[in-house]
Amino acid sequence: MEFFNKAKSVRLRSHLGKYLVADDDEETVRQSSNGSSRKARWTVEFVEGNSHVIRLKSFHGKYLTASDEPFLLGMTGKKVVQTIPTTMKDNSIEWEPIKEGFEVKLRAKGGKFLRANGATPPWRNSITHDLPHRTATQSWVLWEVDVVDICVLDLESESLPSYMSPASSFSSSPADDFTVSDSRSPSIAPESRSSSIFPYRSRPSSGRQNGMELFDKAKAVRLQNHHGKYLVADDDEQTVRQSRNGSSHKARWTVEFIEGKPHVILLKSHHGLYLTATDKAFLLGMTGKKVLQTLPATKSDTSIEWEPIKEGAFHVKLRTSQGKFLRANGGTPPWRNSITHDVPHRTATQDWVLWGVDVVDISLSDSESLSSCTSTASNFSALADDFSGSPDTGSPIVVSAGRLGHASTRQVNRLTLPN
Fold this sequence. Notes:
By secondary structure, this protein is mainly β. The chain has 1 helix and 24 strands. The chain has 2 domains: 7-155, Trefoil (Trefoil (Acidic Fibroblast Growth Factor, subunit A)), CATH 2.80.10.50; 198-414, Trefoil (Acidic Fibroblast Growth Factor, subunit A), CATH 2.80.10. The protein has one helix at residues 409-414, and strands at residues 7-13, 19-22, 29-32, 42-47, 50-57, 63-70, 78-83, 96-100, 103-107, 113-116, 127-130, 144-150, 218-224, 230-233, 240-243, 253-258, 261-268, 274-281, 289-294, 307-311, 315-319, 325-328, 339-342, 355-362. The strands form 7 sheets. It has a 6-stranded antiparallel β-sheet with strand order 17-16-13-24-21-20. Strands 5-4-1-12 form a 4-stranded antiparallel β-sheet, with no helix packed on it. Residues 162-209 are annotated as: Disordered.
């Protein structure tokens, strides 16, 4: 529910990169790549006395409805349509958001989920509610929540940040679809690690690319993957892996920039070593290469450079100079919790290169107006480093009056900081 608590209206983006839209026939719902259309905008309504469900109303004033009519005879999927129910107690228009990493499942009555179908017609671009029984279709019920407008009425008693627009809109630009253009470990004495060996520039300015805006004001970040785990730097000062302990200093990565390269970042661990895409095979015969902590011999070593490429509203891919991506592996050991850089070739592993950016500290050097809405330490989440709430119910995290630092991290990252 935390994705919807302050939302006045949202867009829902499927695993196919398409948006849930309400057609002009005022009945059909389907997927479309055009996220700037008003058809993709859904007003969020809450149900009195039932705090764990929401209603979604199209721009026609009709509600997203889980019908009992089969999409195709003999198939399990049921139609999802726009309707105006005879009574607001009709639970076919109620959807229960269930948090799944950085995305949500929307559960309808009967326990089925809102599903974005792929494959050939008539399935292509269709929307049904169903249960995914095959591994290949598990991601078909996952949705990214793109908050378009927030509800100012719910925030009257709170100190709204000075950098929010008067319209309280997170995303008024029509350019909401993002295109993606389509990789040594010398040892240095530990005492030389105390400061950066690279020319550090204040912040990227105009002309930034894709996912750079998620890092522009970041002094330090945590990176959370689709498994709900964080990228951490081990104490052996070499290994990087995944861990559920996001509050550890091992999960904190300092963000640095390189003069003359506005499209890439460097990520430095608490050991003062840099996240590095090596040329060493993770396992012989496999395509994935090792990712380590290193201190390169020269500042021109591109193996420590990562290009953030925005994917959806809140995720980035981190691309190496070789065109591969930072990847959080699953499966059985030795893959489990490992980190490599690779290109995902299978549909089932596309999400393995997506990362949520959790800003831990911001830089105030070029944004004086932030002083009114952040703590002295410029820390967004000094106390609540780990996501709270049940993974099944997505218990809400409420912004307390004047304390933006206690908001859910995803809510913080939605705010666009001023240049």
